[in-house]
């Protein structure tokens, strides 16, 4: 959909500008803002701009365990102080098309972006839906954000080597990986101790 801004008498043509989804769907915009601010207070809304985010989005930190079941005791030990910092980019067709979410920290490597097991697409966006039909226009953006939080945990499990690929449904709704969090945290500690010993041996 476009709107005419009036004739450009100097050029003799009519200039057209795209109608932003934020103008076309103000009720949905307010809904997204209210739901996201309640769900992830450390995410900041970004208004549409011309420098990389023409349709707006969000940037900031996601909660590490926003799920209904109890948080595993070793989760904080596994993740440490590193929170998941994401960039959420709306498309021109929102809410018909889901937003694209990138993990800024931790940032998947180029190699990880080429391996389907890591659920990261080439270019760095997270693969959070099983199919194109996995998103419904009436769905809440927070559903995708929850999947992103789950991706962060499975990313740590992959890094620790306790799983070979991320789960199909995601840890947000699949508790089958919960028990591996303590094992991954223990492995991470052993790796740190081994690295320190190697460094000490090198100094000697």
Structural classification: alpha+beta
Major pleated sheet? 4 strands, antiparallel
- Assign an overall shape: elongated
Strand arrangement, major sheet: 3-4-5-6
Q: What proportion of the residues form beta strands (DSSP E)?
A: 15-25%
Q: What is the N-to-C succession of helices and strands?
A: EEHHEEHEEHHH
Number of strands: 6
* Unreliable runs: 1-15
Overall mean pLDDT score? 87
| Secondary structure: helix percent | 25-40%
Radius of gyration of CA atoms, rounded to a whole number: 21 Å
Determine the N-to-C terminus distance.
Answer: 70 Å
Number of helices: 6
What does this structure look like?
The protein is an alpha+beta fold. Helix content is about 35%, strand content about 15%. It is built from 6 helices and 6 strands. The strands form 2 sheets. A 4-stranded antiparallel beta sheet has the order 3-4-5-6, covered by helices on one side. A two-stranded antiparallel sheet has the order 1-2. A hairpin with a 4-residue loop joins strand 1 and strand 2. Helix 5 crosses helix 6. The chain is elongated. The N terminus is likely disordered.
